């Protein structure tokens, strides 16, 4: 016989502990990396792997009817190391989780020996069925990180000041450019429009041909 999962939530903000009335059969524990994709001209798509994303977990289970019997109703308790206390009902369990979510409380999520992380609730969705008093639910968590601190002892302000922030993907366009000695219409079209074929448009705007001497000229783009 396989060992059952032990799942409980410790609300670090309020000092409360809550166990699930019925554990799900499986809880995925994904870990993903940030991926930036770029399309390189004349090469194709490339992927740059960054740091790992925040951990997320999703738990799906159900709450039983409060009148299902003494054996079942004892599952709606706070349990820690085998001690049962503070008997609560199905509705009070739902209300408690909703209050934790709305207050953005810090929750330590413990799943047997497999998972132990400080998280916050991003989604709590009870589903009421017309023909049953059982309430199914989904609860989603995301890893909590303090944005003011990092492993190097710096702050978010120092990170921003270092320039290590996302680049603006939109190129700033200019309306005119002064041609240098090394320039020709092809190179200017490539540099400022991203396509060398646009040299004809630039030439037409400025009354030029491919053989025109453009050095020192102010060209309209």
Q: Quickly give the CATH architecture of the largest domain.
A: Beta Barrel
Could you tell me the strand content as a percent range?
25-35%
The proportion of residues forming helix, as a percent range, comes to: 10-25%
How many structural units, i.e. domains?
2
SS field, number of helical segments: 5
By CATH reckoning, the class of the largest domain would read Mainly Beta
Provide an overview of this structure.
By secondary structure, the chain is α+β, with helices and mostly antiparallel strands. It has two domains: 7-161, Elongation Factor Tu (Ef-tu), domain 3; 176-220, Roll (Membrane-bound Lytic Murein Transglycosylase D, Chain A), CATH 3.10.350. It has helices spanning 70-73, 90-103, 156-161, 185-193, 199-206, and strands spanning 7-11, 16-19, 33-40, 44-52, 56-63, 78-80, 83-85, 107-111, 115-128, 135-143, 176-178, 218-220. The protein has a six-stranded antiparallel beta sheet with strand order 2-1-8-9-10-5. A two-stranded antiparallel sheet has the order 3-4. The protein has a two-stranded antiparallel sheet with strand order 6-7. The longest helix is centred in the middle third of the chain and has 14 residues, at 90-103. It is rod-shaped, with a radius of gyration of 30 Å.
């Amino acid at each position: 016989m396989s060992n059952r999962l032990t799942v409980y939530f410790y609300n670090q903000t309020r000092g409360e502990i809550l166990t699930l009335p019925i554990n799900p059969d499986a809880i995925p524990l994904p870990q993903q990396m940030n991926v930036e994709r770029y399309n390189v001209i004349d090469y194709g798509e490339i992927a740059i792997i960054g740091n790992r994303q925040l951990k997320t977990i999703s738990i799906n289970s159900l709450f039983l009817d409060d009148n299902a019997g003494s054996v079942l109703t004892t599952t709606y308790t706070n349990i820690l190391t085998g001690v049962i206390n503070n008997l609560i009902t199905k509705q009070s369990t739902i209300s408690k989780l909703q209050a934790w979510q709305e207050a953005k409380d810090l929750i330590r999520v413990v799943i047997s020996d497999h998972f132990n992380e400080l998280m916050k609730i991003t989604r709590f969705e009870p589903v009421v069925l017309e023909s049953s008093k059982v309430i199914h639910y989904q609860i989603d968590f995301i890893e909590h990180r303090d944005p003011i601190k990092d492993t190097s002892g710096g702050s978010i302000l120092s990170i921003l000041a270092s320039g290590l922030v996302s680049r603006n993907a939109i190129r700033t366009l200019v309306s005119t450019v002064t041609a240098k000695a090394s320039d020709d219409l092809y190179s200017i079209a490539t540099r400022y429009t991203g396509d060398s074929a646009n040299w004809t448009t630039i030439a037409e705007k400025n009354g030029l041909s491919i053989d025109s001497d453009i050095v020192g000229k102010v060209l309209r783009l």
